[in-house]
Design brief:
CATH superfamily of the largest domain: Histidine kinase-like ATPase, C-terminal domain
Largest sheet: 6 strands, antiparallel
Shape: elongated
Structural class: alpha+beta
CATH class of the largest domain: Alpha Beta
Number of helices: 14
Helix content: 40-55%
Radius of gyration: 37 Å
CATH architecture of the largest domain: 2-Layer Sandwich
Distance between the termini: 68 Å
Number of domains: 4
Strand content: 15-25%
Length: 506
Amino acid sequence: MASLDSPTPSWQDRDFLSFFEAVPDALLLVDAEGVIALTNQHAESLFGYTRDELVGELVERLVAPRFRSEHMDHRKMYFKQPTLRPMGGGLTLFAVRKDNVEVAVEISLSPVTISGQTYALCAVRDVRARKAAECELETAREELDTHQVLVALLSHLPGMAYRCWNDRDWTMQFVSDGCLQLTGHRSTTFLSRGVSYGRDVIHPEDQERVWNEIQLAIGRGNVFELRYRIVAAGGKEKIVWERGVGLPSLGGESMSLQGFVHDVTRETLAERKLREFEKSANDQSRLADIGAITAKIVHDLGNPLAGLLMQTQLLVRRAKRSGTSEILEPAENVLATGRHLDAMMMEFRDFLRSQRLSLSQVDVDQFLDEVASQWESVAKQQNTAWAVEVEPGMPKLRADVSKLRRVLDNLVKNALEALKESGKVVLSAFAEAGSLCITVRDSGPGLDPSLDPFQMFETTKPEGTGMGLAVCREIAQAHNGTLEATRSMEGGAEFRLLLPWRGPAG
């Protein structure tokens, strides 16, 4: 590239150049003629040019060709009245790399005065890679020396710039005002050693890792870059990104560190949620495939099983008429097993298909009275105490009465089977926080703590399918309700069905 002749500031302050490099954006210092006077390594990475290729070149070289003419006019107008502002009114702009690839960027401008000359400090951020906080830079005071310009610049960056001793406390020599928003502590608190960044701010579980990673990097002469957690004033945890360098010791002093710390909590949590969503989507896709295959198997087995049951029933009847005991007993065993398998397949089909509800207004008192009437006689037959506790005057419930009846029949049947003989079963219903709560509890042996009663195929009953409660929970959830299991006050099991009065939407 041809170099343009332009006055170039002379910076001798190593601090300025070090901090200029530590800022996690591409920085360009441009004079009123549009000539780039200074840049950093992030600009080299973003635009693909070396530092020598950028310095002395017109900044329009980095603007997409279709915008260059317009950009020159904007630049001239800007230097007539330079102020702090985002270029393009906050819109996404397009820069062009050395390889002619356009890059969507956000650009903020800030005028600075160095050695009596006004420059525009351009912070360029590649919005494809990171959504970062806006760089808000106030107009630097005229006639400030290089160090004052640096301090004013850093005080407006969204994060914390620092220089500290390389010790376990990270004893601060300099810290920007951004530390207050990041950590909740003022810079004076760090500088007076009222708070130790290394021991009080970095999360206790991350302190050793952070120390080791930084020591390893600076021991090799490398820039360090890492993420870790901090605990801000008030106890709030944040996730931060840090980039910095080690400074060689001078005059026998210990090594110092300087760099930049930025809050990336929102970005990190968003990345985690995205990964969780992708994993959940993959799991759902696999489950859907398994469900489709299983449904096909269940459907294909239905007709042969029905034929087998019919033939076995016929065989049993013939064996009974002929008195052939050696055929009757095994035939009855086959029939019982077939019926058990048929019941399991029916429940499995119910579980696989979506719960389509036929909603109506259910009279709760009448509904529970019907349930109680049916099961009271069964309880008496096995010498089980039967009690019904229903709160009077409850409003009507919007629900699918047949599916709701199926849930309660299943719960009461399980309670009675758990007792076998004697004991007690209690059916109760009452209003609770805008919902109807129905409980079925017994004085039996209780739930096996090693089993999830709602997990498919988990059952303690020899003839159980292990799917009844799973289907019951599906029905409850289809009503926007819940079905939970716990230990009852009688020492047995208690199932708690909670349904909103208004029922599901739609």
